[in-house]
């Protein structure tokens, strides 16, 4: 490689737009996922660059992938993280085909362009350039690619439970943040509330126990909970949102069963075990006031909030890189969504930074797109952050 060739010059020779288009044309809507097809595409790119990697198949059509660049010198371990799956395209009509990667006036359209194949491929290319320059830094960098993020971090859980990912100092997750630095995000509790009442003829409702009314009373109690008053400097209060409700069979029968799912988003000030106690106490109180009734609480997903110190090395390094590239607003922020970081943080204590190209408000939207210029900026920023971070020597752990 020409020693004078910087990342911008190098990148233009890698056909970055064509690579991302190829990824968008690979349908990884979850469910069912089918992420293996995209993982194999990424593996081929890594193999072409001569980067060691390993594919970890899970259920049919699904897989994680880990790639590793080792400098041969003692230093820190940094992880680049991204997911392969996307949400569905929705019922609304798209202006451009959702799986074509069509480019119009500097934008690429398609499902996953912003969330988060654009960020993933920015990382992949930055990782590949980092491999070309591995004599210039120390320690090692890993690329951790997961399946099933959109349905609760299934791939990240498999990655950690099966010890596919080693201990790390810091991790960058390439979710779309418009290159802003997200150092905190909410945790999530998904619960199913099952209300059992007593059926009766609708003309004699006093003879039964309406399970739908019980569900209504239950959620009303949650809405009045003091849990929603918890404060955090970067995140909003805890929220309780009913996302699905089912109950009743006929218009003239008092329903004896109703179930609802509740999406609870928590900030780091809230302990999930405290919320689970609240949910059970509320169930006991509501059911106890209605004879012949009961309420069951089933936990569907339990992932903690993420918080990284503004003083951490990875955050300071990212701030410096953005400043050097003309960004003045480098104040770290929080996000109300959750990421694979919730899973990773349950198993390891490394610092986690979320940043990447793409407008966060476009995630999961019809006509999702990414600015091609921002996609390319992502490659440059990821490389510069990694190269600077892995040139530091003030680490507690040292890898080779």
Q: Would you write up a description of this structure?
A:
With 400 residues, the protein is an alpha+beta fold. It folds into two domains: 7-185 and 306-389, Zn peptidases (Aminopeptidase), CATH 3.40.630.10; 187-303, Alpha-Beta Plaits. The chain contains ten helices and 18 strands. The chain has helices at residues 7-12, 16-24, 36-48, 113-132, 154-161, 211-223, 272-288, 313-324, 341-347, 372-389; strands at residues 53-57, 63-70, 77-83, 103-104, 107-109, 140-146, 170-173, 182-185, 187-196, 200-201, 239-247, 253-254, 257-266, 294-303, 306-307, 333-335, 351-354, 369-371. The strands form five sheets. The protein has a six-stranded mixed beta sheet with strand order 1-2-6-3-7-17, sandwiched between helices. A four-stranded antiparallel beta sheet has the order 11-13-9-14. A hairpin with a 5-residue loop joins β1 and β2. α2 packs across α4 (113-132) and α8 (313-324) crosses α10. The two termini are 24 Å apart. 45% of the residues are buried.
Number of domains: 2
Fold-level CATH name of the largest domain: Aminopeptidase
The SS-based structural class is alpha+beta
**How much helix is in the residues?**
25-40%
Average pLDDT number: 94
CATH architecture of the largest domain: 3-Layer(aba) Sandwich
* CA(first)-CA(last) distance: 24 Å
Task: From the alpha carbons, calculate the radius of gyration and give it in angstroms.
Answer: 24 Å
Helix segment count?
A: 10
Main β-sheet description: 6 strands, mixed
Beta-strand residue fraction: 15-25%
Domain Peptidase M20 dimerisation: 183-286
Protein name: Peptidase M20 dimerisation domain-containing protein
Cofactor: Co(2+); Zn(2+)
Family: Belongs to the peptidase M20A family.
